[in-house]
Amino acid sequence: MTAWTDPVEADLLDEPIQELYATYWVRFSSDFEGSSHTNKLPGPMNYFEDWSETDENGDGHGGDPATGYGWSARAGFKDTDSDRIRIGSYVYHMDMDGQYGNNWGYRWVSKGEWHRITQHVKMNTVSNGSANSDGILEYWVDDEKTIEQDEVRWTEHPEEGINYAFTVWYGGSDPSPKDQDVYLDNWKLSTTPIPGTPPEQDADPEGIILELITSEGMATTEYEFTVAGTVEKRTDAGDLSAEDNDDITDNGDGTVTVNGAVGNGYGDSYYVDGTIESMSDLDESKWTIRYDDEEVSIDDIVESDGPDIDRFEISKSQQLGDDRMFSVQWAVSENEDELDTVEVVVAEDEENMNFAVTDVSGESASGWDLFQFPVDTGLEVTLRAEDGGENVTTQTETITL
Questions:
Q1: In the predicted model, is pLDDT for residue 244 greater than 90?
Q2: pTM here?
Q3: N or C, which terminus of the chain has less Cβ within 10 Å?
């Protein structure tokens, strides 16, 4: 299905509009097969077909980049698994990457069920013939905001206004593998907010952003983590958005547990307000974990139930020929289980390391260990304390001799 409407030419309005709200419902058949290409659904646009006769005037669709004339922000769908399909927005704008549109705000939804798409577009302004970065695109799927962009450069000709593409298109250029059904219903277009559609979203939830990102080609893998505090899904992070299949369970004791699954280079992200008490033993060679916009390990962010490290001091001695000695002084304590071992590991790299292990007992222990390496060697020194319940606490410092 392909059709688009200019509200002025259609005698719906007297002049081009600068702002548009739209909403409709969509349902994909339960056996629908998507593709890796971005397939198209209805959305705001203005292709400027009359201006596309010369190479420098971009249509803003169909592989013809937006260069200050045409633009588009149609909805899109791509990828499927047995029960789900991803929907988002396929956007041609003046700052787009490459020849084809950018995919923004995609999230998984269930096939065989109705889902509401809500769109809001506002044209950018122009100063001295140049587009200003103040255009708007907002997008909701089932009342959850997945896109919030307020610095979009749509066009250098906003006076031409906003049209609307009533388009369902499979591809790219590849045809659908079979006859398939997409259902659309309850369309509404307006120059003002539409009653019953999502209100202005509140400010971002409180907390630190936690992102769990898989490697390209990695099979879908489950994960779990528990927080003493609260967790909310982050749904406006594109390929890193938490989805419907990710669950947050209130345990009734001040903690919540998150269970999710993701793979193939995608990720999930959350707002964490509290302390992360535990997390699945993820293979960190295949996962990237970011917390507060920094790449971290599980040990960096999970609060340990292990012993307390009360002292961890490194002291260098004078140079002895080509080497230098240094001491590690430590003290640990435990309130619940008895202490078991304290280990100091000194590593230059994965192949060159030394360590000292001390068997301990009781509720507290202290000691020191001595090491020797060549001068100017960079080292990671890790103190590892374990109790009788196999709870472990680690702390790492770096030094150069």
A1: no
A2: 0.54
A3: N
